């Protein structure tokens, strides 16, 4: 065990006694916990507004050829409308994590919704063919909201849901973003179609932008009215301990960051998770270009294939969340899912090389179930490795890794595709996934959150038994 692991475990152990005795005024009982029915309202509201944001991530890239023709820009320029979501995250996440940790869940959600809404309305006025710069500005506003949206599922789950619901709630929270991406894949090619008359493309874009702006406005209003901070009573012993730890230490932002950057398991996870989700981001960004290399006039097919990847991934995320809640086999699940992701990428490449469309759909669905489903699994691993650190900080750093890898892989794979074709891209994806799988295999099976939960329960029961013995 490293010095840092001992320090983290000591921090947890030190506060076990405090949460049992001090937090309960010396009664000797474990804290009162309660799960509130309105937790589901909070989760549904988050899913709605996260979907509104995520929808816009891929709305240009999935019709790259049409956007290039209409605005008169290069494929690389269109790729950057997707990469902004990854690029802006990196410099902003640390400031955002600090601010959102201070502001709380409610104001974090309101901030994200308002900025997303502003970006959506800016794009309404960017339909003219010489206003790609304006549509890029609007996209940039939307992209900055990722710094508050991406870390939210784990934090929302920890604040509102019981110990046996956390993994499932996290996966459902990620479901919101995945739902938005899925709708972006399928609806954008349906609304924005390839026309000989460029004015008709402009009409289609206008319909798309107006629709997104109106729905984003509705989401903002609902969040402002109904979204709440965390409940009065903690939903689990681990959450109560986490609150007690922060209340006692009041150490701010720097010390948790130092501990996280000395946590070897967490750093390995950042790289393995980053490679997996970075490959997913690269495939999603380049999907239109890849599909059109093999199938002529297949813009809608690209959208449906992207939908297959994301929808099956949503089922995968929920499935893995339930499995983790039931079994708590975090490392074993991660290794199996990662290995099957690599297998899925190989099948996807082979299906495209053969050129049989139905095989591409099947392979994409298999790939998506594991690769996209790994999103939620990574959040749960992060919580286990870093507990009792704030979820907003740890998941923020985790997402920095996948966004850095995403930008790098899009740029590298874009060049490879221009020079050698898409098979070079698939080979690169397999190499990245193999490296991530190896790192996952050699990562320790650390479960600090589960161990703490068991320890709190054990100590609480032991204390109660001692009291009963004294009475006798």
Automatic annotation (TrEMBL):
Pfam families: MFS_1 (PF07690)
One GO MF term: heme transmembrane transporter activity
Membrane topology field: Multi-pass membrane protein
Localization per record: Membrane
GO annotation, biological process: heme export
Highest taxon in the source lineage: Eukaryota
Gene Ontology, cellular component aspect: membrane
Residue spans crossing the bilayer: 40-60, 80-100, 107-126, 132-151, 172-192, 208-227, 266-291, 303-323, 335-354, 360-377, 397-417, 423-443
Keywords from the UniProt entry: Membrane, Receptor, Transmembrane, Transmembrane helix
Domain named Major facilitator superfamily (MFS) profile: residues: 42-447
Keyword Transmembrane among UniProt keywords: yes
Chief site of localization: membrane
PROSITE patterns cross-referenced by the UniProt entry: MFS (PS50850)
InterPro entries with a match to the protein in the record: FLVCR1-2_SLC49-like, MFS, MFS_dom, MFS_trans_sf
PANTHER family, sorted: GH15861P (PTHR10924:SF4), MAJOR FACILITATOR SUPERFAMILY PROTEIN-RELATED (PTHR10924)
Name of the featured protein: Feline leukemia virus subgroup C receptor-related protein 2
Organism: Cephus cinctus (Wheat stem sawfly)
